[in-house]
Automatic annotation (TrEMBL):
<feature type="domain" description="Response regulatory">
    <location>
        <begin position="9"/>
        <end position="126"/>
    </location>
</feature>
<dbReference type="Pfam" id="PF12833">
    <property type="entry name" value="HTH_18"/>
</dbReference>
<dbReference type="Pfam" id="PF00072">
    <property type="entry name" value="Response_reg"/>
</dbReference>
<dbReference type="InterPro" id="IPR020449">
    <property type="entry name" value="Tscrpt_reg_AraC-type_HTH"/>
</dbReference>
<dbReference type="InterPro" id="IPR011006">
    <property type="entry name" value="CheY-like_superfamily"/>
</dbReference>
<dbReference type="GO" id="GO:0003700">
    <property type="term" value="F:DNA-binding transcription factor activity"/>
</dbReference>
<keyword id="KW-0597">Phosphoprotein</keyword>
<feature type="modified residue" description="4-aspartylphosphate">
    <location>
        <position position="61"/>
    </location>
</feature>
<dbReference type="GO" id="GO:0000160">
    <property type="term" value="P:phosphorelay signal transduction system"/>
</dbReference>
<dbReference type="InterPro" id="IPR001789">
    <property type="entry name" value="Sig_transdc_resp-reg_receiver"/>
</dbReference>
<dbReference type="GO" id="GO:0043565">
    <property type="term" value="F:sequence-specific DNA binding"/>
</dbReference>
<dbReference type="Pfam" id="PF17853">
    <property type="entry name" value="GGDEF_2"/>
</dbReference>
<keyword id="KW-0238">DNA-binding</keyword>
<dbReference type="InterPro" id="IPR041522">
    <property type="entry name" value="CdaR_GGDEF"/>
</dbReference>
<feature type="domain" description="HTH araC/xylS-type">
    <location>
        <begin position="428"/>
        <end position="526"/>
    </location>
</feature>
<dbReference type="InterPro" id="IPR009057">
    <property type="entry name" value="Homeodomain-like_sf"/>
</dbReference>
<keyword id="KW-0805">Transcription regulation</keyword>
Length: 534
């Protein structure tokens, strides 16, 4: 059998020691890809061994003391229907064997045991286990694909973009045709958390939170759960739970804290119907969640469907929000500053009270800050620090000036980061070119042209990003390749020089000794000596 095949475990059960011994030595277990997990003299001992070793195949005498083979199978198959039983029976026990087949045994053979026949049975049993495993893997893949596609479909509808997913209509069901509401769960202080986590830690934490949410959803009647933004998940609940929205949210916040020690807040929308309404209720739940940033406390925030008595309903500047997002996305500082002035004009034109003006400004600020997060340009200052500044200001002009200053600083830092990232990509491209062409007579003019930069700009950027000058990096590449050739071949030293870009072997030896402290010959001899000692 192939070395990569899974080894299945077999348990031998017979009250005759001679039969157990013959089975162990006469069957080519390793060749069949099988291992003997244990042996038992009766059904009672077999029960204990099966619980401990979890075999896939049981070869058992049909008649044994204490618990016979059929009783053993009847005990085990309801718990593990995939377990394969092969029974050994005497000529006078044919009726027992027929009953065993009727009750689910894989096969049986008569005594005296024909080992070739048993080998054929085990080959067929192994093939059946392989098919079962393949089917399980296929079903798991289909289920995972269905889950991922369904999540993607919900996310696209939530973004208001259903068209690309018309081919996924087969995933839809009627659960959202009935009344439902949405809860948006967001980790508090997500930017500061991710600044402390490594990439692997971030992956593990988000995976853990998702597992907690999935288990919680099953226990609390949620219709679906899917991740949306980083650090944010969307849960959908049937409308009949709308009267306990607050309680659901509070339980969710408490359980996340209990099982992960992390804090989160939840924004909950009104009820609606239809999958196409996901893009309508998401902004409502997210808007409710914005109140967490000016309430100063984590918790559960329910969408306010109607203004409270005496409270004025304010038109939200959606077009202004979209324009500000676009200015950040394109790192257009001048445009962003002008749009903040337009925000001031909007608030003045509506004659908003300080409280209402703060509400509009804070909602806008949170949306804009999240745009920085999505672009991977998180500011050094936490959002809460900016909120604290705004709360302490007494005039609209002062608020706008603080917004301009902080967002200006963030955008400039974002531009510098983008420039650094772009510089890294250029230098990485040049390093790959040098690594591919180190054996040629490379000139700085040629490589600067690859970078599409002037020679002076290229030299400055390459040193700044890589830590090497151009010549140092070329030499480094050539020396590393020379060391590899000297260690792994018997090529003459004078023949190594042109292989790594040096036409003069003497000059190559000088450069090599300067880089390593040894001549090429000395280096090779030392490597051979170390290999011999190892």
């Amino acid at each position: 059998m192939g070395a990569r095949q899974e080894q299945y475990k077999v348990l031998l059960v017979d009250d005759e020691p001679i039969i157990l011994r013959s089975l162990k030595v006469a069957i080519p277990w390793e060749e069949l890809g099988l291992t003997i997990a244990g042996e038992a003299r009766n059904g009672e001992a077999a029960l204990r061994l099966i619980e401990e070793s979890s075999p896939q195949i049981v070869i058992s005498d049909i008649r044994m003391p204490v618990i016979d083979g059929i009783a053993l199978m009847k005990e085990l198959l309801p718990k593990n229907p995939k377990l394969l039983f092969i029974f050994i029976s005497g000529y006078g026990e044919f009726e027992y064997a027929r009953d065993a087949l009727r009750l689910g045994a894989f096969d049986y053979l008569l005594k005296p045991i024909d080992h070739d026949e048993l080998t054929d049975m085990l080959t067929r049993a192994r093939a059946k286990l392989d098919r079962q495993k393949e089917n399980e893997q296929l079903m798991h893949s289909v289920q995972m694909l269905s889950i991922l596609a369904r999540e993607r479909m919900f996310a696209e509808f939530t973004l208001g973009n259903p068209r690309p997913l018309q081919h996924l209509k087969w995933l839809e069901n009627s659960e959202l045709e009935r009344e439902y509401f949405m809860a948006v769960v967001r980790l508090d202080d997500y930017a500061s958390l991710t600044a402390k986590w490594s990439a692997e830690e971030k992956h593990l934490w988000l995976f853990a939170i998702r597992n907690i949410l999935e288990e919680w959803s099953l226990e609390n009647g949620a219709l679906s759960i899917f991740p949306f933004y980083n650090g944010e998940w969307v849960l959908l609940f049937p409308g009949n739970l709308s009267t306990v929205r607050k309680e659901l949210g509070e339980r969710l916040v408490a359980d996340i804290k209990r099982y992960s020690k992390l804090h989160c807040s939840v924004g909950i929308s009104r009820s609606t119907q239809g999958i196409d309404q996901l893009s309508t209720v998401y902004p409502l739940a997210a808007k409710a969640l914005y109140r967490r940033f000016y309430s100063g406390e984590a918790g559960v925030f329910i969408e306010e469907e109607t203004p409270e008595a005496g409270e004025r309903e304010v038109q939200y500047p959606k077009e202004l929000e979209l324009s500000l997002i676009e200015s950040i996305r394109t790192l257009n500082l001048e445009r962003m500053l002008l749009l903040f002035d337009e925000m001031a004009c909007f608030i003045e034109a509506q004659s908003l009270t300080k409280e209402l003006a703060q509400r509009v400004i804070i909602e806008l600020v949170v949306v804009l800050y999240r745009q920085f997060e999505q672009m991977g340009l998180q500011a050094e200052w936490p959002l809460e620090e900016l909120m604290g500044k705004l709360q302490g200001l007494g005039t609209l002009s002062a608020v706008i000036n603080v917004l301009k200053q902080d967002f200006r600083d963030w955008m400039l830092e974002g531009s510098r980061q983008a420039a650094r990232d772009d510089g890294r990509s250029v230098v990485d491209k040049v390093k790959r070119y040098i690594e591919d062409n180190y054996h040629k007579d490379l000139s700085i003019e040629e490589v600067a042209e690859v970078a599409d930069l002037s020679i002076s700009h290229f030299c400055t950027l390459f040193k700044q990003v890589s830590g090497y000058t151009f010549l140092e990096f070329v030499t480094h590449c050539r020396m590393e390749k020379a060391k590899y050739i000297l260690q792994n071949s018997s090529v003459k030293v004078y023949q190594v020089a042109p292989l790594v870009g040096y036409q003069d072997p003497k000059y190559f030896t000088q450069v090599f000794k300067k880089a390593t402290g040894k001549t090429p010959t000395e280096y090779r001899e030392e490597m051979l000596r170390l290999a011999g000692e190892g």
